[in-house]
Amino acid sequence: MERIPILKMGRYLLVTVQVDMHDRLAMTLQDDLTNQIVEHKARAVLIDISTLEIVDSFIGRMLANIAAMSRVLDAMTVVVGMQPSVAITLVELGLSLKGVYTALNVEKGMEFLTTSLSGEDGADAGNTG
Question: How far apart (Å, rounded) are the C-alpha atoms in residues 55 and 22?
């Protein structure tokens, strides 16, 4: 079965979508990603969709679902590389992608995550409860 690779980079998981996303692949990604968040105790997920030129309402909802599930598992989600046509489609479909942070590219997304999560190491060190 076709799968999208999920790479572990420190406290983050990196997903680069390099193929056309169809419904079954999106469902598999959702399942794989939630399992990887738990297994690696990931603090954030960065999803690069720069190669996606077209999305439908199902794929848009899957991105929102992934972000919601990540949040429940205590991980942030950042989507990077969104094409203008994809952004237009998502807005026209009325999908707000609540809880999904966005950045122009992987570099900006990693900068955002590093800044957002930078205070955690010190805060967690003294937490015993």
Answer: 9
